[in-house]
Design goal:
mainly alpha, 10 helices, repeat, transport, transmembrane, mitochondrion inner membrane, MCP_transmembrane
Length: 245
């Protein structure tokens, strides 16, 4: 006859460590999404940096001298001149950021929903609680991810320095972390955190409210149960909608 300890040991990991499982699931989903969309982010950043560098050098003649014009031509130019894999140059800090941010906000939101706010008698999560919980989860997730967000932006700015002919400041992601920490201390890793969490609060007010609405709809209108699979499907549906916009 099995004891409660044996049953707990043999139960799935998602049941034994639900918060850790949701963190990992959210992090994995964010990593896949980041890998799929990073070339678009890189192309957008390259266009922005190119325009700023050209304006600084040439002023009004910058438009005529720009080597890339448009998203498609910029992406094709990167592939032809630098190689196909360069479309994912700098993806490492972006992945770090999304793992911490997505995992942190989802775990926080689930904790607020289950422990702090609680559901109504019909097991429904009221809209006002979703709004408040989403904003608070966004604040926590972004605050935790601010160091990785800072490194991501700093690494992207290296492209501007390269176009301007200036020496690069960082040799890689870990060197960037170490240099920022050495120059600014622990507080330096959280530079710019106030506007970042304000934006994250507004973004997650919509994202997580929609996520909870979609999940509740799936549980009520499909054979799916309120488990980690349904959570992942709801997250992917929201991510697919955002990617199509």
């Amino acid at each position: 006859m099995s004891t409660p300890e044996d049953e707990e040991r043999l139960s799935p990991l998602a049941q034994r460590w639900p918060r850790a499982s949701k963190f990992l699931l959210s992090g994995c989903a964010a990593t896949v999404a980041e890998l799929a969309t990073f070339p678009l982010d890189l192309t957008k950043t390259r266009l922005q940096i190119q325009g700023e560098a050209a304006l600084a050098r040439l002023g009004d003649g910058a438009r005529e001298s720009a080597p890339y014009r448009g998203m498609v031509r910029t992406a094709l130019g990167i592939v032809q001149e630098e190689g196909f894999l360069k479309l994912w140059q700098g993806v490492t800090p972006a992945i770090y950021r999304h793992i911490v941010y997505s995992g942190g906000r989802m775990v926080t939101y689930e904790h607020l929903r289950e422990v702090v706010f609680g559901k109504s008698e019909d097991k429904h999560y009221p809209l006002w609680k979703s709004v408040i919980g989403g904003m608070m989860a966004g604040v926590v997730g972004q605050f935790l991810a601010n160091p990785t967000d800072l490194v991501k932006v700093q690494m992207q700015m290296e492209g501007k320095r390269k176009l301007e002919g200036k020496p690069l400041r960082f040799r890689g992601v870990h060197h960037a972390f170490a240099k920022i920490l050495a120059e600014g201390g622990i507080r330096g890793l959280w530079a710019g955190w106030v506007p970042n969490i304000q934006r994250a609060a507004l973004v997650n007010m919509g994202d997580l409210t929609t996520y909870d609405t979609v999940k509740h709809y799936l549980v009520l209108n499909t054979p799916l149960e309120d488990n980690i699979m349904t959570h992942g499907l709801s997250s992917n549906l929201i991510g697919s909608h955002k990617a199509s916009q």
